[in-house]
Amino acid sequence: MGSWFSNLFNLWGRDGKEHKLIIVGLDNAGKTTILYQYLLNDVVVTSPTIGSNVEEIQFKNLKFLMWDVGGQESLRSSWSTYYNAVEAVLLVIDSTDRERLTLIKEELYTMLAHDDLKSARLLVLANKQDLKGAMSAAEISKQFNLTSIKDHSWHIQACCALTGEGLYEGMEWLTDEMTRKH
Ligand SMILES: Nc1nc2c(ncn2[C@@H]2O[C@H](COP(=O)(O)OP(=O)(O)OP(=O)(O)O)[C@@H](O)[C@H]2O)c(=O)[nH]1
Ligand SMILES: [Mg+2]
Q1: Pocket around ligand 1: residues whose beta carbon is below 6 Å from it?
Q2: Cα–ligand 1 centroid distance for 69 (angstroms)
Q3: Whose CA is nearest to atom 3 of ligand 1?
Q4: I need a labelling partner for 121 at 20 to 30 A (CA). Which of 2, 48, 175, 179 fits?
Q5: Ligand 1 atom closest to residue 127's alpha carbon, by position in its atom list
Q6: Side-chain-side CA neighbours of residue 7 (13 Å)
């Protein structure tokens, strides 16, 4: 193909490639709010996701296809149908939801053991930091035993989807990670 054509592609995405990413987490964690903060830099009114939302998001020369999947109990078994070709998992935690931390920890380790996610990076977003009683990223990291994860590159980032705080930093880690290894 002519060079003008590939230049055009480079304007869109660094290599013209679309990087598939999934946003998972329990219901009410803030996944859909985060997806639309990334897309619109704004807060949208959400209702519980049935199925999924997907948006194309450009971040620092990389083009992402972000899939946001519903987190309700009955929908969790279908998460694995989205795993094919996923390069990164964004795990969103409601940092005030202490009761269900063990539950999402189990979901996390089940996900990491899945064949399709062998080389996926993991970004944990400790969301709802604006709320009183929110666990810190360090606390969640400890509860999740993140330092024991040696076969995936991972990072945990505190954030607030309503203000957007921390969301940029999380994606910055991810894009650095992805460009460093390719
Ligand atoms: N205070 C506060 N509320 C938030 C934050 N992020 C999301 N929310 C609220 O949490 C509720 C659930 O947000 P959603 O984005 O719909 O949650 P979800 O993870 O997509 O939920 P499912 O689609 O059911 O899996 C909404 O009322 C959001 O406005 C945050 O950082 N702080
Ligand atoms: Mg949702």
Answers
A1: 25, 27-33, 46, 48-49, 70-72, 127-128, 130-131, 160-162
A2: 13
A3: 128
A4: 48
A5: 31
A6: 3
Find the 144 Cα to ligand 2 centroid distance in Å.
23
- Give the pairing of strands 154-158 and 121-127: parallel
Supply the residues annotated as catalytic: 72
pLDDT tens series, the chain, 182 aa: 444 554 444 444 455 789 999 999 999 999 999 999 999 999 999 999 999 999 999 999 899 999 999 999 999 999 999 999 999 999 999 999 999 999 999 999 999 999 999 999 999 999 999 999 999 999 999 999 999 999 999 999 999 999 999 999 999 999 999 998 54
CATH of domain 2-180: 3.40.50.300
Instruction: Supply the DSSP string of 115-168, one letter for each residue.
Output: GGGTT-EEEEEEE-TTSTTPPPHHHHHHHHTGGG--SS-EEEEE--TTT-TTHH
Structure pTM?
0.92
